[in-house]
Structure formats: structure tokens, C-alpha cells
Amino acid sequence: MRLVIALCLITTLAGEYADADDAERLPATNALLSILENHTAYDLDTAELDRAMVQGLINALNDPYAAIIDTSGADRSGTTALAEGVDAGLTLTTDSYGCLVVHAVAPGSAAAGAGIEPADRLLRVGAGNTAGQSAWEVLPQLLIQPDETLRVVTQRPGEEPRHLELKWTPYETDTISVRVGDVRRRRWRDSQNGEIAWCSIRTFDGDTTPAEWNRMVETILAAPNVRFLIIDLRGNGGGDNACIPLLGDFFMGGETLVNFRRELSEREWTQTVVNSGRPRSRLIPFPSVAIVNHGTASLGEITAAALRDNRGVPIVGTQTFGKGTTQTWVDLDGSYAAHLTVGSWTSPAGTSIENAGLQPDVVIADNPRTPNVDEQLLRAVDVLYSLTR
């Protein structure tokens, strides 16, 4: 069992391009196992050895987004659910030091209620230390049951650790929301007769986002006075690339949405994704502005980059996360699933944002001294009106 898993991971990474040298990578592993079985006073935990070998191979990749989860005896369809962390409202990532960092916090969630913010490090969950664990391993520990409290420890850069309690709180889990209205006296006001549709796209989920996207478009087209769109991508950490065709609603047929470069073993190839599916082009008539922040990553960044490159849509906010790579889940012999980087992407204009992020056309951060005023939204509205002057 131990060697089967190691072999499976090695050959899966190379895919159909695996070569004869793969077999030569295993003698050292066999020798070490023999030594452990015959020259140690400690009992061998076979399951722990399995995991240690797989984890060692993953670590050797030096892939900051690589991770494994144990799926033995579980339904593999649950992998996506484990990655969402919807109950606590947290989206996690790993920094360059291997520490878990909060990437985004869902509004109204238990995490938001406890005061957790993007860029906070997550040090402990319950009684367990998160050191050495991936986001995929920790997120299932953040599930909160009704009438229960989960204790966590977080830390902001330059500050002391904070001991917090996450209390189960029902909150809106839709991936998209749309509000029709306008701004009066530096406040957003919902109004059926408003001329702005404020579309918040929080994430891209292959199962639920397409239907929510169509409802968003229907709401915009049914509003009698809507002339402008605000595309709010703040905190959107990406999601399922199967949602990319939805972006076609903003573009003409045949326009490039994103360029992918796949890399497996010594082979690589490129793929240009163009607007060729349905629905498409329904939102072209509306002047638009996008809002981003450091929590905007991956498919969130792909969306903003395509809007700017193809339509000249201004971007308002702060520098985005800078995730220019793509990942996928790979099954390992039915016992584990590995999350691996398989390539990179560039914008329609050929720009890579890896580690650099998207630089907004209008840079503005929310003012902490006025927490009830959305400064980025207000500036986006000003930019919208300037487009028609």
C-alpha cells in the first residue's frame, strides 16, 4: 500500500509523459522502509507512513499551492466543499513562510462577526496548531454547529496574537448579489428606479454561480433605468474555471477571455479561451467600472484583466493578490487527493500578474476612520459618471 501510493503520485504528476526513469526513483524509499521495519524500536504506523511519503513528495515540488487531503472512505465530490469553508466564512491561503493566511472573509459570517480580516494569520483552531497544515486540511476544522463556539487564534502583522470565538451565524452564501440604486449623500441607496446596478461577484462556483449569474443579468435587463454597472470583485479569490464562459456576457463573440499555458513533464502548450459560448454579449451596452482589492485573486483577477484589456473598463481599489497560476485536483489511488499547479495564465493582452497583481487605474483604500462609508464604491460611482461626460 505504501509504495502504491508513492508510485501513483509520481506517475500521475508526469501523466502520459512518464518515462522509464520513474522506476529508478524508488530504491531509496524501499531501502528506508526496510531499515525502519528491521532497525527501530518504535512501532510503525502504516497509515502515518503513507501520509508522510505523499506529503514529502508534495513538499519537494516547492509549489506554494500544493496540498493533499485524505479522501479514504469519503466521497471525492466533497473535495470542493472542503475547499469552500462556507460555514465559518473564511477563505485561506498560504504565505511564503508556509503560514495560513486569511484571504477573504464572507460578509455576515461567523469569522466577520469575530473581527477576522484579510491578511490575518490563522495560528490555531480549537486546541490544534495549524503549523505545517494546508488550507484544505484546516478548513474542515472550521465547521461550526448551531449553538457551538469555535476558538481560534489569529495574528495581524506587527501585533500580538488574538484569541477569538467564532459563533455559528447564518449568513448569505450566494456567490453573486445585485442591487439596483444610486448614491445620495455619500451613501448607497437601493431604488427600483436607480441607474446603477451594483453586482458583487464573491466567488465562482461551478454548481451555483451559472444560475445566479443568469438571474443577475435578468435583474439588470429588467430594471427600467439602469445605465451603468459596478462589477465588485473585492474578496473574490477565484474558483471554478468552468465559469469562465460566463464572462462572455461582457464581450463580443470571438474576443479573448484568457490565455492559459499548461506545463506537464517536459511538454507544454497554450490555450486561448475565446467568447464562443452562450449566453454572451448581453451586458456590452452598459458602461462599467470594476472594484478590486488584495483579496481579488485568480479567476477574480482574470475577470478584471479581461474587462480592462478588451473593453477599457477602469479598475478602482487596491492592488490585487497576484495569482497567475492555475491548479487542479488529482486523485491518488482513492486514498488522497492532491491540489497541484498545472500551468499559468495571462490576460488577453498577454500580461502576467503572478506576484505583481493588477494595479488599479484609480487607487483608493477604504478609510478605517469612516467604516460605514464605502470609499471604494463611492469613487467607482464617480468614475462611472465621468465615462459619459
Word description of this protein:
This protein has 389 residues and is α+β, with helices and mostly antiparallel strands. The chain folds into 3 domains: 2-60, no CATH class; 87-167, PDZ domain (Pdz3 Domain); 176-386, 2-enoyl-CoA Hydratase, Chain A, domain 1 (Alpha-Beta Complex). It is 24% helix and 27% strand. The protein contains 9 helices and 18 strands. It has helices at 2-14, 27-38, 46-60, 78-84, 110-113, 135-138, 209-222, 299-311, 375-386, and strands at 67-70, 90-94, 100-105, 121-125, 128-129, 149-155, 162-167, 176-184, 187-190, 196-201, 228-232, 256-264, 267-274, 288-292, 315-317, 325-332, 336-346, 362-363. The strands form 4 sheets. Strands 9-8-10-11-14-15-18 form a 7-stranded mixed β-sheet, sandwiched between helices. Strands 1, 12, 13, 16 and 17 form a 5-stranded antiparallel β-sheet that branches. A 4-stranded antiparallel β-sheet has the order 5-4-6-7. Strand 16 (325-332) and strand 17 (336-346) form a beta hairpin. Helix 1 runs parallel beside helix 3. The longest helix has 15 residues, at 46-60. It is globular. The termini are far apart. The model is unreliable at 1-23 and 73-86 (pLDDT under 50).
CATH C-level label of the largest domain = Alpha Beta
Radius of gyration: 23 Å
Count up the domains: 3
Q: How would you characterize the largest beta sheet?
A: 7 strands, mixed
Total count of helical runs of at least 4 residues: 9
Strand content: 25-35%
| CATH H-level superfamily of the largest domain | 2-enoyl-CoA Hydratase, Chain A, domain 1
Helix-strand topology string: HHHEHEEHEEHEEEEEHEEEEHEEEEH
Second CATH tier, the architecture of the largest domain: Alpha-Beta Complex
Query: What's the count of strands?
Result: 18
Mean pLDDT: 82
Derived structural class: alpha+beta
Low-confidence stretches: 1-23, 73-86
The separation of the N and C termini measures 69 Å
In which order are the strands of the major sheet placed?
9-8-10-11-14-15-18
